[in-house]
Amino acid sequence: MLIQNHTASASILGTGSYLPERIMTNAELEKMVDTNDEWIRTRTGIQERRIAAPNETTSDMAAAAARAALENAGIEAQEISMIICATVTPDMFFPNTACFVQAKIGATNAVCFDVSAACSGFLYALEIARQFIAVSPEKTILVIGADKLSSIVNWEDRNTCVLFGDGAGAAILRHRAGGSGIITTSMGSDGKLADILYTPGGGSAAPTTSENVSEKLATIRMNGRETYKQAVKAMVDSSQQALLQAGITIDQISCIIPHQANLRIIETIANRLHVSLDKFHLNLDRFGNTSAAAVAIALDEAARTRNFKQGDLILLVVFGGGLTWAASVIQW
User: Residues 133, 256: one domain?
Assistant: First the structure.
């Protein structure tokens, strides 16, 4: 039985995404670090990823995805009352990246701020938007997940540089009479495990200086084995919790859109949820892990290729550094 929320619902009116033109294949990485195509494909499922141009910023990608979402929703930028941008690669520490997006798309009436929850950021931002709309149904909110991970990758670390890519995805949320929209979201965090996936430098704890710049502290560090274990547990648990909160079973879900990090992680999740991998929408083979953008890009792609139709139930589930995780049940 589907549990109905009696506050104003938040529906997704439109989605959009953007991916840089440059494609970096596994063959290219073979020339950069000690790795090979077979090793990358068998352990991650990734065959290629998109890399932003040197002068292409996170806000550039976010704005492009936002324009696509606006067009898809059939609304003007001036109708947007809030922009929430989920990113861990902001253009700069401040102003926030959402403000740069506002200026680039002409959303002059929007309140703007960023959310930092690594790969979980887009679902965190969706839930924030849902809460705003629940108490202010007149709001129209633009939610964006965007990251330029190529700017914080250590291209000499073969364990991490093969995983990541750049991109942005966006969604427009608004109350729609008679539409369920986002039904429920299960979220969680565990700061005690922050050191299994993080960037140690560049912030106030370890500012980049001329003395430490060679240590590349402002690049991604990851304990792959522990990240795998925690990602599987968190994504399975949050999926089950979200389904329970919504009062439905996994069999009622038409499409599952997971964080696009690693095919082995997703296969294990499918096995533990007792659901066919065919029900998952996957694009990590083409785009790799784009952090906060990953589930947003996949959602846009799935919607445009009609992997689900109006009224269908979909499950979005993510995991990221922090540690952070979330799962959302949405009626399209």
Answer: no
Pairing assessment for the beta strands 181-189 and 324-331 based on DSSP bridges = antiparallel
Q: Is 154 among the residues known to form the active site?
A: no
Q: Which residue of the set 85, 112, 119, 255 is catalytic? A: 119
CA distance 41 to 48: 9
User: Residue 198: is its pLDDT beyond 70?
Assistant: yes
Residue with tokens 């959302």: 328
Q: Looking at the structure, do residues 28 and 174 belong to the same domain, yes or no? A: yes
**Residue 67 sits in the same domain as residue 209:** no
Mutual angle of helices 58-73 and 97-105, in 10-degree steps:
50
pLDDT in tens, 227-254: 999 999 999 999 999 999 999 999 999 9
Q: Active-site residue among 26, 161, 255, 259?
A: 259
Q: Which domain holds residue 283?
A: 183-331
Give the pLDDT mean for 100-109. Answer: 98
Of the residues 72, 96, 262, 289, which is catalytic? 289
Please, which pLDDT band fits residue 134 given cuts at 50, 70 and 90? very high
pTM of the model: 0.96
119 is catalytic: yes
> Is 175 part of the annotated catalytic residue set?
no
1, 40, 232 from 248: Cα distances, Å = 6, 37, 21
Please list, in sequence order, all residues whose beta carbon lies within 8 angstroms of the beta carbon of residue 303, skipping any fewer than 6 positions away: 15, 332
